[in-house]
Amino acid sequence: MIAVGWILSWWGARWIRWSLLATGVVVSVLVFVTGFHVSSPPLSPDSGCTREQVQCMDGRPIPWLEAGLFGFACCVLLLIVTTVADIVIRLENRSSVESPH
Predict the structure, then answer these.
(1) CA distance 3 to 27
(2) Predicted model pTM
(3) Which of 36, 38, 55, 68 could form a disulfide with 31 if both were Cys (CB 3.0 to 4.6 A apart)?
(4) What are phi and psi for residue 10, nearest 5 degrees?
């Protein structure tokens, strides 16, 4: 969804791209943080488990953490591509203005 929005934003103003990337970063971080707050079911006293034991850990937060990290990595990659593309576009515009045809 982040990549599709980014691709579609190239037909709009430059501020739209940067706004979408900033929004994507914020949402990805919020999804990642949500993974730490997903509640696990209570452990029964007779289970013999404590929350610190790996074999007793609940896997509910893992998809949230993965989605947050993947979204953040995608935004960082698109941020690099956008920065390079903006630099190239500005250099091309500057060279076309300076050279009379």
Answers:
(1) 14
(2) 0.71
(3) 68
(4) -70, -15
